[in-house]
Amino acid sequence: MVKMLIAFFVLFFVISPLAANAQSAKLTTQEAATESVEASASAMITPKVRVDPTQITQDASSPFQQILDEQELGSVWPFNPVKYAIRSSVDSGVPPNTIVLLLLLPVIATFIATARHVGGMRGFGIFPPAALSVVFLAIGPILGILLFFLIVLISTYARVFMRRAKIKLQYLPRMALILWAVVIGVLWLLLFLVPVLNLRALTNVSIFPVLILVLLAEDFAKVQLGKSARTAIAQATETLILSLIAFIFLTMGSLQAFALTKPELLLISVAIIDFVIGKYIGLRVVEYWRFRKLIRS
Which has more confidence, 181 or 31? Predict the structure, then answer.
C-alpha cells in the first residue's frame, strides 16, 4: 500500500510536471520556426468556435434576442404577463439565453420524472441527469461523456483500491476521500495532460461543468458503497442516457422559441403533466416487460 501511494505521488508531482516542462520547452524551440506559417494559416483558415449557450455572450444571446424582436405582444392581461416580464428583464440586461434555460429546466425535469416513474429507468435521481444535460450543453456531448467516464473510472478505482488496501473508514470520510481522488484525477488531466497532449477542446472548459461532474461522483460513489459497483455502473449508464435525451430537448430550436414566446402555456402545461404523472400508480414499462409471462398467464 505504501509503495502504491509513493508511486502515485511520484507520478502526480514529479513525472507529470517534468513531462509538461519538456513539452513546453519543445514548443518554445519550435515557436520561432512556425510563427510565419501559423500567421499565414490563421489568415486563410478561421476555425469555427463552438457557442456555449450557458455563457453570457453576444453569440449565445443574439438568436433569442432576434426571436424577441420579431415577437408581437398583445395586452398584458390575462395571457401575457410572463412575456412582458421577460421583455422587461431582457431590456434591463438579463441574458435571454439564461431565461430560456430556466424555462426549459422544468421541461427536462418532467421528462426525467416521467422516464423514471412511468418508464422504470433508474439513474441518480432528477437533479444529476438535468445537471449533466446542462454540462453537455456547455462543453459538448462528446467531451462531457469523456469527462463523465473519467470521473466514473477514477471513483471506481478509488473504491477498489481502498477495499484491497483494507482501508477501513466511516462512510462520510470515505466519500470525502473518493471525491479527493476524483479531484486529483481531474487536476492531473487539466494541469498536465492538456499542455502535453495539446487538447484544445479542454482549454475553454469553465469551472461550472467540471464542478458538476465532480459532484456527480458523490452519487456514483454513494451507490457503490451502499449497493455494488455493477448497480452503480448500470445507474450511471441510465443517467447518461437520460442526460443525452434531455440535452436534445435543450438544443431544440423550436422548443427554445416556444419557451421564449409562450412561457405561460409552457409552464402551465408542465405543471399539469407533473400532476397527471404523479397520480399514476400502475406498473412501469420495464415491469410490463419483466413480468410479461406472468401477465400473459
Answer: 181
Band the pLDDT of 28: cuts 50, 70, 90. very low
Total domains in the chain come to: 1
Asked whether residue 169 is domain-assigned, the answer is: yes
- Reported pTM: 0.73
User: For residue 266, what are the domain limits?
Assistant: 56-68+75-86+93-296
- Among 31-35, 100-104, 200-204, 270-274, the minimum mean pLDDT is found in 31-35
Cis peptide before 96 (omega within 30 of 0): no
Q: Is the pLDDT of residue 150 over 80?
A: yes
277, 118 contact by CB (below 8 A): yes
Say whether pLDDT at 107 is over 90. Answer: yes
State the number of CA atoms in the 13 A half-sphere of 156 facing the CB.
14
Residues 6+ apart with CB under 8 A from 139: 52, 147, 205, 209
In a domain, 15, yes or no: no
Grid cell for residue 15: 513525472
User: CA dist 234 to 124, 167, 227, Å?
Assistant: 10, 26, 12
Contacts 24+ apart (CB under 8 A), 76-82: 79/264, 80/264, 81/264, 82/263, 82/264, 82/267
Mean pLDDT (the chain, rounded): 77
**Does a structural domain hold residue 130?**
yes
In order, the DSSP letters of 140-209 are -HHHHHHHHHHHHHHHHHHHHHHHHTT----HHHHHHHHHHHHHHHHHHIIIIIHHHHT-GGGTT--HHH
Please, are residues 137 and 251 in contact by the beta-carbon 8 Å criterion? Answer: yes
Please indicate, yes or no, if residue 249 is contained in any of the structural domains.
yes
What angle is formed at CA 186 by the lines to CA 184 and CA 188, rounded to 5 degrees? Answer: 65
203 vs 74, higher pLDDT: 74
Task: Tell me the C-alpha distance between 233 and 84, whole Å.
Answer: 46
Tell me how far apart the alpha carbons of residues 167 and 159 are, in angstroms, rounded to a whole number.
10
